[in-house]
């Protein structure tokens, strides 16, 4: 299990390892409900003011806006999810790759920053033997914490944790 310290950002290699490890055997509507509900429970435990979203193949399967979240969180969700769907990788990994090259995503990607945001919090739903079929996204915390919350939920969902 990988737990990130909120103040520390993971390396490109650590983020890539998370993606290799967090591959789903399948992903149904019921799975979306279970994963989304798990994220809600984790966020409530921490009193995190987040919005949570799960999309598959262009369809929203789960959405929750917890106390303290705002409409702006939904806009961030959309922008981060678009990065995942365009690049096939976590929004945090995409942004970290740009930073590792000394580049700024907003300037170097040539994509509209009002439409795309390479900030942590959106993670690809990758199904074994299929590829990326959607994304699970959290918005409302600093980007490393948004990302870490999604990773922790996926680890628990896949049974990769001891608790």
UniProtKB/TrEMBL annotation:
Domain of life from the UniProt record: Bacteria
Coiled-coil stretches: none
Family listed: Belongs to the UPF0303 family.
InterPro entries: PduO/GlcC-like, PduO/GlcC-like_sf, YBR137W-like
Organism taxonomic ancestry: Bacteria, Bacillati, Actinomycetota, Actinomycetes, Kitasatosporales
Species, as recorded: Streptomyces fragilis
Protein name: UPF0303 protein AB0E65_06035
